[in-house]
Amino acid sequence: MWLFLLCLLLGSIFTVFFGWMVKNNLSGADNGSRLGRAAVMVASFPSLVTTVLEDIRVDTLDRDSPVRVPRPHIDLSGFVPVGSGTGTGVTGLLMRADRQALAQKPGWRILVGAFTIDGEISNAALALSPDLQIEKIWLLTEESIDGMDAQPPHRKFIHGFELLDDGSVIFSFDGGVSLQRFGRCGARLWAIGGFFHHTVTLDDDGKYVWALRDREVVKTQPDTGDEIRYYAHEVVKVAVETGEIARYFSMDDIVAANPAINILQIRKQDDNDVGGNARNTDEKWLDDPFHVNDIEPLPAALAGRFAGFDAGDLLLSARSLNLVFVLDFMARLAALVPRPRVNLTRYHGVFAPNSPHRAWVTKAGRGRGADRKASDEVEEDTPAARRSAMTWAQRLKRVFRMPQGTLS
């Protein structure tokens, strides 16, 4: 009996200690110790087994399930099958359109996604004529590159896509291993390896595209010598003609170029260093600290409408930061840098400088409504009100005993 109780007590202590290690490692407080990482691996083993079994089922029995979403209760009245003039069988594609609205805005349209083509799920781009007939199909595939294995079609989907004037396309997959350009006839013109994602945007001159890439980086901690592996989130500029990378910079570079803007580091967990109070500690980033998901260069034709920005400035969206910001050519945040000679503190509503009610809600009683308030209130100001109504010159004179006439 005592042996059973002892084992139960030791098991409870181990469970609490094991859970504490997993929690600390996932929250970043463990600083990435080997014991903490091992605890996380053991704790995630049941989920890993479940994921592997599900992957085997999908790959062998039901390859279409990751991209097929049954909606049996959706009202499909008014939807009609989309016709095809290409001879390629696109089945299951339904569309409901307002013909009068289409007549007001005629033109060709591009539909990108996963489709059932000749009985197989395929990633493709469809060109729809003004009367919504499929006239052109680009089958978007991927091959293994730079030692990275390409995923099967049902394990990825089109994430970034750009149609060029010559009918060729540049695209990337979510779950893919490359950025590619296909010609108008479907031939692969070039491919560059990398975990590209989310967007592909053509530059103003049509010679480059901007894309987003995650690249694995290995760093060594100077104090412990341990290797740290993480994915750097990069902005990449790629030549349309050759596929060569003309320029790239990471979010780490953007943070370094903007040391005074702390909003970029809101997902960085500060190390309290209890008892040590060390300076310049290397804090740990939380998972997915930026999640940059869009990039748009400012066209020259629109630059004149946005004061303070130049043609070619990059508009980026970071979902994890809940932030949209603009970068100049030097990777500095143009949108968050204060404009010269502008107050950094702004007031709105009744506190705004031109509000007729500002005198009623501030201690100083100054503003557009001050005269009206003075006429309504005839009693003498209290000492506190007189102190709050002092000018800065009067305050400096009172605090520093400076002659008021010397203040400018």
Keyphrases for this structure?
4-stranded antiparallel sheet; Lipocalin; 408 residues
Helices and strands, with pairings:
Elements: H1 2-27, H2 34-43, H3 45-60, E1 80-81, E2 90-91, E3 94-95, H4 99-104, E4 109-117, E5 120-128, E6 134-139, E7 157-163, E8 169-174, E9 178-182, E10 188-193, E11 195-202, E12 208-220, E13 227-239, E14 245-250, H5 251-257, E15 268-269, E16 284-285, E17 292-297, H6 300-303, E18 314-318, E19 323-327, H7 358-361, H8 370-376, H9 383-388, H10 392-400
Antiparallel strand pairs: 1-3, 2-4, 4-5, 5-6, 7-8, 8-9, 9-10, 11-12, 12-13, 13-14, 15-16, 17-18, 18-19
Helix pairs in contact: 1-2
Fold and architecture overview:
The protein is α+β, with helices and mostly antiparallel strands and 408 residues long. It has 10 helices and 19 strands. The protein has helices at 2-27, 34-43, 45-60, 99-104, 251-257, 300-303, 358-361, 370-376, 383-388, 392-400; strands spanning 80-81, 90-91, 94-95, 109-117, 120-128, 134-139, 157-163, 169-174, 178-182, 188-193, 195-202, 208-220, 227-239, 245-250, 268-269, 284-285, 292-297, 314-318, 323-327. Strands 2-4-5-6 form a 4-stranded antiparallel β-sheet, with no helix packed on it. The protein has a 4-stranded antiparallel β-sheet with strand order 7-8-9-10, with no helix packed on it. The chain has a 4-stranded antiparallel β-sheet with strand order 11-12-13-14. A hairpin with a 6-residue loop joins strand 12 and strand 13. Helix 1 crosses helix 2 (34-43). The longest helix is centred in the first third of the chain and has 26 residues, at 2-27. The chain is extended. The termini are far apart. The model has no long low-confidence stretch (mean pLDDT 78).
